[in-house]
Amino acid sequence: MKNQSVLLVLEFDLNEMMTQRPHHLINYLKNTFKNVVILYFNKKLYLKNQLFDFEVIKEQEDNITYISIPYCKHYDAEKKLLINSQLMKHYILNNFTNRNFDICIFTNPLSAPLVESIKKENVAKVLVYEDLDDFTQYYSLYSPEITSYMELCEGYMLDNADVIFSVSESLKDYRIGQGHTNVPIYISPNGVILKNFNCSSNSTREDKIIFIGALEEWAGVQFAIRGLKQCIDRGFKAEFIIVGEGLYEKELMQLTKDLNIEQYVKFLGRLEHNKLPELMNRCKVGIITFEESNLTKVAHPIKIIEYFACGLAVIGSDFGEIKNAIDESGAGLTVGNEEEFADAVIKLLTDHNFYIQCQKNSRKYAEEFDWTRIFDNEFTIISEVRPKTRVNKLNINFEEVLQEFEMTLNSNGQDEFSLSNLFNSLEKEWVRKGYKKAAIYGAGEHTERLLKHISFENMEIGGLIDSNPKYLGQSRYGYKIISFQNAIEQEVDVIIISSRKYEEEIYNMIKNECSKNHIEIFKLYKENKEYEDQIWRQLYIEE
Known about the structure:
Layout: E1 5-9, H1 21-32, E2 35-42, E3 57-61, E4 64-70, H2 77-96, E5 101-106, H3 112-120, E6 124-131, H4 135-142, H5 147-160, E7 163-166, H6 169-178, E8 185-187, E9 208-212, H7 221-233, E10 239-243, H8 249-258, E11 265-269, H9 276-280, E12 285-288, H10 294-297, H11 302-309, E13 313-317, H12 320-329, E14 332-335, H13 338-350, H14 352-366, H15 371-382, H16 399-409, H17 419-432, E15 437-441, H18 445-451, E16 460-465, E17 475-476, E18 479-482, H19 484-489, E19 494-497, H20 503-516, E20 520-523, H21 532-540
C-alpha cells in the first residue's frame, strides 16, 4: 500500500471539527500511503463575484496535501448544500481529472453529487464510503427541510460506492434492512490510540462522573443530570463533569439550576482532545445515556472506547450498541431510567471490588479497538475490491439553483438595497423616537459581519447579547458580551436580532420581557423578507 495514492473528501471544516474518526484516518493515511490529498471546506474562505472563480488554501505536510475550498453560506439550507457540492465537484474535475487516485474515501452522504464524475473522469479507481451514522435522521434534527435531500444522497452513496464500512453491526443490519444490498458492507468500528489514554491508579481518582461529547438533546445528558439529583436526594454526593458544547447547553444549565444542584455540576465547555485523558483519569465513571432513537441505537461513539481506554467504569443506555459494548466488556452498568442511573452511580462509587473489576475489564476491552488494527483490516479489504466501471446518475437538477445563485453573485454590488443605508435610516428613525442605546442579540460570525454595516453616529451599541453564561464579560469585535438581563438593566431602547436561522425563536423568547420594559425588537430578515438574497450577499460575499 505504500506506493498507492488516496483522496479523502470531507464535507466539513477540518479546522473547526472536534477530533473524530476522519482525524484518526488522516493520521493512519499519513503513516501508510505515499501520496495523500485531503479536500475539505474552509468556512473562513468566501466566494467572489464569479461562482467558480475562487481561491483555495493548499498546504503540504510531508506526504499529505491539504486543500481547502470556500464554503458557501447561503441562507437556504438545501441550496447551500447543492452549491457546495458543485464547488467541490468543479475543483476536483479541474485539478484531478485522469489523476487515477488508487482510492477515494467519502465520510458523508453529502459527497453523493461527486461520485459519478469521479468515476467517469478517472479521478479515482476504488470509491469507499465510511458509513458513520444514520445521517438522514441526524440532519433531520437540525434542518428538517433538507431531510429528503439527505435521504436521496445517503441512499445513492450506499448503492454506488465500491465498498462500504459501517461503524457498527446495528448500522450494517439497518442498511441491509433498507434494501442496500448491491454493495458489500463490512463492519469497521471506532477505535482509540491506546498510548494516549494511559490508565491511572485509583489513588488519583475522585468520586466524579464525566460526560464528554455534544451537548444536544439526543445525547441524553439531561437524563444523567436528573439521575444525579436522585443521588443527592438520597444523601450521596458526587461531582458531574460535563465537557462539550452544543445547542442544548443552555437548557442543561437551566435544568441544573432548577434542580438546585449547580454546586455538583461543572460545565467545562469544549476542550482540546489532548487534554481529555488527564481529565478522565481524575474521574471514576464515564456517562453515555442517549435518548433512544434509530440514530443512537446504531451509533458506536468514539467516547465510549476512550472511556474504556482510560479505565473508567461506564454507565450507559440500555439499548443499541452502547448496551452491547457494556455487556460484552463487563465494564459498567446499563440503565433505563433515572432511578436506575442513581443506583448505578452509587454502586460504582461505593462497591470497591465491583468498581475495580469494571476498571480492569474496561481497559482490556479497549485493547481490541486500536485504530491501526481497525484501519489495517479496512484497507486489506479495500485491496481486494473489484471497482465498478460505471455508477448510476444522481437525479438532482443543479442548474436552476446555480443560475439563480450566479445572478446574485454577479449583481456587482448594484443592489438597490444596502445594509449600511438601512441602518443609517433606522438610526435616524430611532433617534427621532428618543432612542439612545441598542444591543445586538448574537455574538457569532453573523454579528461580526453585520457590525461592518452599522456605523451609528448618535446611538450607542451597549453590547452583544449571548445566552451562554461562559462568554459573559468577554469582549468580541470591540463590544462586551452581555446577557439579555444585562441589556434590560442597561435600559437599551432597541434589540437587533443578528441571526437568520434562530430569528423567530429569539424573538419569541424575549418579546414579553421586551414589551414589559418598552424595548423595541428589530428582526432583520423578517422585516426585509424580499431582500434576503441581497442581505446574504452583502454579509458573506467578498467584493
